[in-house]
Amino acid sequence: MQSSWWADFRLAAGYEHFAVIPKNNGAIVGGAVVMKYSYADDACFYYIPEGPVLFKDEEFAGEVFDAILRQIDQRRQKESKIVSHLLIEPRWLQQPGYVTGFQVPPFKDPFREPRNTICVDLTAPEETILARMKPKGRYNIRVAQRHGITVVEDNSQQGIMDFIRLYKRTTTRHDIETKPSGYFREMMSILLLQERGSIYFAEYLGRRLAAAIVVYFGDRATYFFGGSLIQYRSVMAPYLLHFEIMRRAKAMGLAWYDLWGVSPENDQTNSWHAISVFKRKFGGKEFNFIPTLDFIYDSMTYDRFISEQSIAKEEKTTIQMSR
Question: What is the DSSP string of 193-218?
């Protein structure tokens, strides 16, 4: 999400963006793609998804982080709107000591991305990848193989339509917020142009039972969105779908398959619980990143932002309950 193509994709959702690129003697030493989202006529916030990007050396990273914040603040002071806060979501397992003045948002911000995920190590031999799965995961893959499930890649317009259909069935079934169809059409047009992603399907008797959008970046393949049907559940199509995606990503030389987002393991009230149980059957290493962090520039405007988001959430909950 720190790539230029991701920033271009988010333009359709109302996000402007700018780049912050600190240099040392002309050499780039870190940076951030900063999103700008206007939530009112007179107010906006800044957002750095999966960033900023820093070196691992903590002392040097701290200097670069401070430089990034200074450049962002210089930009903020030139804005015509009030910037309420800066939101960052780095993939850090621990908060570095140099990150000060930030706070965890006091509510579930709808702009956040998942902070817990599972990544399967693809550098291991295929037999080891299978051995590291939970027994039920391996068993279900074999069940799907015995039923003759096939996995195909289809990035055509028909493929996008089929994916949206399966995705909507799944979000409705699990009571998860559904993204609009245009979100996926725009995403796939950019992913295909950049050769950064694909749609995969698991098929049985000529019918598509499960689907996944996979994004490729760096050494990682990420399972970004997916869906499946309840029909023919016993043939275990989603299990073979993901195992075949892992095999293909491994053949591409990628090191990780990121299952992108799980709920806390024992939180059965979470709407992601059932999907997370499924993902955990593939084994992998669980990463629990630090929470989303906000740096407040204008406390009054930030309080208004929190209030407006809370009201919007309450109204949405009321609508869902009335259905």
Answer: HHT-EEEEEEEETTEEEEEEEEEEET
Q: Give how many domains the chain has, as a whole number.
A: 2
Nearest to 117 by CA among 301, 248, 262, 217: 262
Range of the domain at 12: 4-113+289-322
294 & 256 share domain: no
**For residue 315, pLDDT beyond 60:** no
User: Ramachandran region of residue 171, left (φ > 0), alpha (ψ -120 to 50) or beta?
Assistant: alpha
SS (H, E, C) 8-36: HHHHHHCEEEEEECCEECCEECCEEEEEE
Residue 108's pLDDT band, with cuts at 50, 70 and 90, is: confident
Amino acid (1-letter code) at residue 84: S
Are the beta carbons of 151 and 201 closer than 8 angstroms? yes
- Whether 305 and 296 have beta carbons less than 8 Å apart is answered as no
Q: Are 9 and 35 in contact (CB under 8 A)?
A: no
Specify the DSSP element, H or E, that contains 228.
strand 220-228
Separation of alpha carbons 259 and 128, rounded Å: 18
Query: Among 309, 314, 313, which Cα is nearest to 40's?
Result: 309
pLDDT in tens, 234-267: 999 999 999 999 999 999 999 999 999 998 877 7
Q: Are 306 and 281 contained in the same domain?
A: no
